[in-house]
């Protein structure tokens, strides 16, 4: 309402008040008479009041009338789902009422995972959900299969391990009321029992070995490889199969007995198949053939044991062996930590190569000669060179070389190859030599 309108309204009210006061006064004075003036004033007041009401209606917006909404009736839909089982993994497709439904399912069905699952708050069927939660006990007996519910039809299809499992499932399904049930439960056909027996094949050619066979576990394969590598052999896997149902491997006892002799074969094969364990090969080491034959006798009567080892006299002469070792030392020399007899790690592979040559020629005797440069006192250098020669000898013995074939001598600074007049020449004089003495 505007200020102008308000002023007019107040003036009008004031006029009406004055009018009634005057009228009352006149009425007191002339109670039985009516004059024309009064009628005219009343008529004017009535018309003014009408105009004022019309002005107030135009200045104040009319309030909209509230319309009462009629709530819509929501029609509930039936849930639908399909639960698949493959091995130990279970997945569900379909439409459920909420995530709470899925959580309830997951608590009952171990390993249940979502896959293309939707939620619809208008989809519900309390009876079906309760029934579904109770079916997990029979679904656990499925090796694989599914449960499907759609438009009032419950379908089950799956493979079970035994006739008893099928009968239990059929009895449970018969107890379900109010739902059409269609089931196709198949009992797995029994497989012929197979006796699982390990199989082993190890082929050696020089320092290279190839293994294959059937093993009870990956650990068994890894342990075999680790054992072979401990003898500085290069190992290659070829068709190694793991069978968890494998019986105790009967190849292990004879294998452990002949392993050390097998390593000394220049080439050969260990084979185990069914009940037969055999060792075939060639060696240049005297006595290996006899050792393998005698060790196989110790394993007993459970396994058929055979061996066919041929002794071949080594073709390598003293000169050839010396040249082989010298060719290794030309590439890299045996080095030690400063002023000590401790080998540096880089020198160990060099000694490993020397050990292989000596193991292939087990009757050869070797002198390990230690030398130093001229720095320091001659007596200290003599002691240091002996210490280093002893270190090399111990390392070779640890690798399997016969101790009686190795002799360590320290010569100190007394046998230089070149003059000790430069750092380069001093490095040449700091050395370990291997001198082949013969058989």
Give structural notes.
This protein has helices at 3-29, 36-59, 99-108, 126-134, 136-139, 163-174, 218-229, 252-263, 288-297, 318-331, 348-360, 378-398, 423-429; strands at residues 80-86, 89-96, 112-119, 142-150, 153-160, 180-187, 199-205, 208-215, 234-242, 265-273, 276-283, 304-311, 365-371, 406-410, 431-438. The chain starts with a helix and ends with a strand. Strands 3-2-1-4-5-6 form a 6-stranded mixed sheet, with helices on one face. Strands 9-8-7-10-11-12 form a 6-stranded mixed sheet, with helices on one face. It contains 13 helices and 15 strands. A hairpin with a 2-residue loop joins β10 (265-273) and β11 (276-283). It is α/β, with parallel strands linked by helices. α1 (3-29) runs antiparallel to α2 and α8 packs antiparallel against α9 (288-297).
Tag the structure with descriptive keywords:
15 strands; hypothetical protein tt1634; 6-stranded mixed beta sheet; alpha/beta; 4 domains; 439 residues
């Amino acid at each position: 309402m505007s200020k102008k309108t308000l002023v007019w309204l107040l003036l009008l009210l004031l006029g009406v008040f004055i009018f009634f006061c005057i009228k009352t006064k006149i009425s007191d004075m002339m109670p039985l008479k009516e004059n024309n003036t009064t009628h005219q004033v009343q008529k004017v007041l009535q018309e003014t009041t009408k105009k004022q009401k019309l002005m107030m209606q135009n200045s104040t917006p009319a309030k909209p009338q509230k319309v009462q909404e009629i709530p819509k009736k929501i029609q509930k839909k039936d849930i639908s789902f399909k639960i698949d089982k493959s091995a130990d993994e279970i997945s569900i497709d379909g439409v459920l009422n909420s995530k709470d439904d899925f959580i309830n399912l997951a608590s009952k069905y171990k390993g249940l995972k979502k896959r293309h699952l939707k939620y619809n708050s208008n989809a519900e069927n309390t009876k079906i959900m309760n029934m579904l939660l109770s079916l997990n006990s029979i679904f656990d007996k499925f090796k694989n299969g599914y449960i499907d519910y759609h438009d009032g039809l419950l379908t089950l299809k799956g493979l079970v391990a035994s006739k008893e499992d099928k009968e239990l499932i059929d009895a449970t399904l018969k107890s379900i009321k109010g739902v059409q049930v269609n089931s196709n439960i198949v009992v797995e056909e029994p497989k012929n029992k197979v006796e699982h027996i390990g199989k082993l094949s190890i082929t050696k050619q020089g320092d290279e070995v190839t293994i294959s066979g059937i093993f009870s576990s990956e650990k068994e394969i890894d342990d075999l490889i680790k054992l072979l590598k401990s003898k500085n052999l290069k190992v290659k896997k070829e068709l190694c199969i793991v069978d968890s149902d494998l019986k105790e491997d009967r190849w292990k006892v004879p294998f452990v007995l002949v392993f050390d002799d097998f390593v000394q074969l220049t080439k050969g094969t260990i084979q185990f198949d069914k009940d037969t364990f055999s060792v075939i090969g060639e060696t240049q080491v005297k006595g290996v053939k006899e050792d393998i034959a005698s060790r196989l006798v110790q394993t007993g009567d459970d396994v058929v044991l055979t061996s066919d080892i041929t002794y071949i006299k080594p073709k390598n002469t003293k000169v050839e062996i010396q040249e082989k070792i010298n060719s290794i030392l030309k590439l890299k020399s045996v080095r030690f930590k400063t002023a000590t007899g401790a080998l540096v790690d880089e020198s160990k592979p060099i000694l490993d190569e020397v050990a292989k040559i000596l193991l292939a020629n087990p009757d050869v005797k070797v002198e390990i000669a230690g030398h130093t440069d001229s720095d320091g006192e001659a007596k200290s250098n003599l002691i240091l060179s002996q210490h280093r020669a002893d270190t090399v000898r111990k390392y070779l013995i640890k690798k399997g070389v016969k101790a009686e074939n190795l002799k360590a001598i320290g010569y100190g600074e007394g046998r230089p190859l070149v003059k000790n007049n430069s750092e380069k020449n001093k490095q040449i004089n700091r050395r370990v030599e291997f001198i082949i003495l013969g058989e």
